[in-house]
């Protein structure tokens, strides 16, 4: 059985080359061909010895994920649906902007966290993606876009692990994938421009800080445990106090001097003035020496199973003003690609739920809406 070289970071590829009886420097050449030049055929790798190319043909391949569908939004956003086998498919999204090109990547087929406002969670969970399946999304998108846009230089400047899945629940495969993205012989992305988004897996946040600190985004979505327990079930295991303490620890290693808190704006649930004031108090409680975070307010992108409604634009602006007036950097995320269901929280792919999570969420929906109504009334 041959191995897919997209599964290896540079160190893993060096070990593979040594097993073939080759010097470690061959791994650098091979790595550059694969990631910088997008080569999938060993015959195209002209500076590799013919003997090595023959060995590679026998024991290895470079295989991207099969593309099931591609949708291009009116704003230039592109969404791909990738086949990962076993009846599962995952989505990745490219978001073009004037000063950057951002790729949103999936780390799991489905998600086991089950956040109320995320359509991926309502699909249930099938499996973790391998490192090569994570990297393959970047490999395909980068080299497709160079041809599509007729550019020779790098197109993707930023990667956000904000697609399907909870990245830190797939840590062993996430780590080598991140190293490929950061490696100067690979994609050469800055640690400041690679972001891992987490719903708050505290032990793995600590490990990421030690192993491969990149920019960190935390899905907060509520100012207190009672509300966050309903919106982000993982909060019952790692409540807000533990989460914010982990954020403080992460900052000692982070490439940026702040953590981004993602906050999905839900009408009557978490978007009131008192919620904003509670967030200000919360941040000040944990910010020794100054405010160490920024808030990214995300307009909710509705889907039928959620039972939730998007906050009105004027409510979002008023909420943002309270945070900004308190000295907290606050942005309102511009919704991109919603006409092709590529906006934040809309990625759902096609997942065979092997855990029963989707059924449990459906059973709990009417029960959970009652506390939401109570939050709305207060």
Label this structure with key terms.
single chain, 378 residues, TIM Barrel, 2 domains, ten-stranded mixed sheet, two-stranded parallel ribbon, 12 helices
Question: What's the short story on this structure?
Answer:
Helix content is 38%, strand content 19%. The chain has helices at 10-19, 25-36, 50-59, 119-123, 131-149, 171-182, 202-211, 225-231, 240-251, 273-286, 313-325, 357-377; strands spanning 3-4, 60-61, 66-72, 78-85, 88-97, 100-104, 108-110, 125-128, 158-161, 194-198, 215-219, 259-265, 293-299, 329-332.
Overall pLDDT confidence:
89
Query: What's the end-to-end separation, in Å?
Result: 61 Å
CATH class of the largest domain, named: Alpha Beta
Strand content: 15-25%
Number of domains: 2
Structural class: alpha/beta
The biggest sheet amounts to: 10 strands, mixed
Which shape, going by the Cα principal axes? elongated
The CATH homologous superfamily of the largest domain is called Aldolase class I
How many beta-strand elements? Answer: 14
User: What order do the helices and strands follow?
Assistant: EHHHEEEEEEHEHEHEHEHHEHEHEH
Helix residue percentage: 25-40%
């Amino acid at each position: 059985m041959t191995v897919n070289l997209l599964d290896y970071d540079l160190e893993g590829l060096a070990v593979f080359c040594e097993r073939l009886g080759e010097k470690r420097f061959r791994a650098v050449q091979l790595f550059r061909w694969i990631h910088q030049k997008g080569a999938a055929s060993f015959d195209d790798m002209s500076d590799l010895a013919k003997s090595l190319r023959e060995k590679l043909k026998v024991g290895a391949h470079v295989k991207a994920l099969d593309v099931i569908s591609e949708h291009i939004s009116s704003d230039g956003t592109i969404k791909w649906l990738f086949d990962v086998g076993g009846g599962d498919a995952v989505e990745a999204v490219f978001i073009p902007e004037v000063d950057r090109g951002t790729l949103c990547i999936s780390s799991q087929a489905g998600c086991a966290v089950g956040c109320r406002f995320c359509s991926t969670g309502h699909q249930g969970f099938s499996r973790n993606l391998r490192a090569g399946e994570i990297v393959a999304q970047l490999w395909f998108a980068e080299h497709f876009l160079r041809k599509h846009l007729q550019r020779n230089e790098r197109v993707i400047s930023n990667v956000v692990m904000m697609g399907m899945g909870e990245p830190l629940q797939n840590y062993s495969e996430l780590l080598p994938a991140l190293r490929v993205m950061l490696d100067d012989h690979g994609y050469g992305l800055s640690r400041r421009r690679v972001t891992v988004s987490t719903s708050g897996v505290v032990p793995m946040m600590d490990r990421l800080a030690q192993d491969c600190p990149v920019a960190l985004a935390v899905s907060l979505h509520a100012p207190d445990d009672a509300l966050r327990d309903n919106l982000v079930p993982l909060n019952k295991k790692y409540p807000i106090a533990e989460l914010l303490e982990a954020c403080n620890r992460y900052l000692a290693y982070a490439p940026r001097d702040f953590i981004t808190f993602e906050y999905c704006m839900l009408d009557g649930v978490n978007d009131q003035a008192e919620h904003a004031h509670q967030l200000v108090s919360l941040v000040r409680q944990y910010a020794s020496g100054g405010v160490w975070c920024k808030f990214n307010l995300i307009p909710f992108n509705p889907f039928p199973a959620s039972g939730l409604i998007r906050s009105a634009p004027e409510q979002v602006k008023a909420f943002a003003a309270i945070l900004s007036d308190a000295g907290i950097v606050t942005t309102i995320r511009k919704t991109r690609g919603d006409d092709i269901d590529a906006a934040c929280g809309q990625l759902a792919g096609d997942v065979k739920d092997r855990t029963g999570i989707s059924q449990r969420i459906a059973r709990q929906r009417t029960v959970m809406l009652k506390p939401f109504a109570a939050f709305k009334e207060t």
